[in-house]
Amino acid sequence: MKQRMRTGIGTRMTTRTGTRALAAAGLALATVTTVGGCAFPSAPKPPLPSPTDTYSLGDPTGYPSDTYSPSPSPTEESYDPDGRSDVNASNCDFSETLHKFTYTVSITNPSTSDSYSYDMDVRWMKDKPADGTMYGQHERSIVVSPGETEEYTAEYTVNQSTFARFWFTCEISEAQKSRM
After folding, report:
1. Which of 100, 113, 154, 173 has the fewest CB atoms in 10 Å of its CB?
2. Each residue of 9-33: pLDDT tens digit?
3. 132: helix, strand or coil
4. Other beta carbons within 10 Å of 101
5. CA–CA separation, 171 vs 87, rounded Å?
6. Three-state secondary-structure class, residue 103
7. 3-class DSSP state for residue 83?
8. Beta strands in 3-109 (DSSP E)
9. Cα separation values, 171 from 51, 81, 126, 131, Å
């Protein structure tokens, strides 16, 4: 490995090195004073809020007290006519030998006091590409007692003897819920 050696170190180089050092020190000082806020003082900063300003819940210490807020009682249940949140479904399938789509649907009534009727609409839709084509549909009404779960298998039989390879998806398109 060949080493290089600098030549020409004299007053000119020393002056240049000294100037660089002075400029670097000035830049460092300007950075520190600006970041620290000394070079350009700003308006006085507002005081930090005290805990009572932050929590103001009536507790003299300023911290939240252990208060109990009860959850709604069964008589205060909210009612949403869209019952899809009460539905779970699984086992989306198609049997080539039976020419049948199936989908297992489970409905849980969250109410502790009211029975509900669910008008269900299950659809088997084309997938890949998903273009809105419906292969089949199953509609059913089912009553679910308070706190109970009802399960059934939605089915749709295809009137076709041969099938090319196809992709499909199952969906709960509607679960209209009404009080009994």
Report:
1. 113
2. 444 444 455 556 555 555 555 554 4
3. coil
4. 23
5. 11
6. strand
7. helix
8. 87-95, 100-108
9. 51, 18, 11, 14
Inform me whether the pLDDT recorded for 54 exceeds 50: no
**pLDDT at residue number 24:** 57
Among residues 146, 144, 126, the alpha carbon closest in space to that of 136 is found at 126
Q: Which residue reads 């308070």 in tokens? A: 146
- pLDDT tens-digit readout, 127-159: 989 999 999 999 999 999 999 999 999 999 998
Q: Provide Rg for the chain, Cα atoms.
A: 37
> In the structure encoding, which two tokens stand for residue 128, read together?
């890949």
Assign 176 to helix, strand or coil.
Answer: strand
Question: What pTM did the predictor assign?
Answer: 0.57
Structure tokens at 145: 């007692």
All residues at 6 or more sequence positions from 106 whose CB lies less than 8 Å from its CB, including other chains: 87, 88, 89, 90, 149, 150, 151
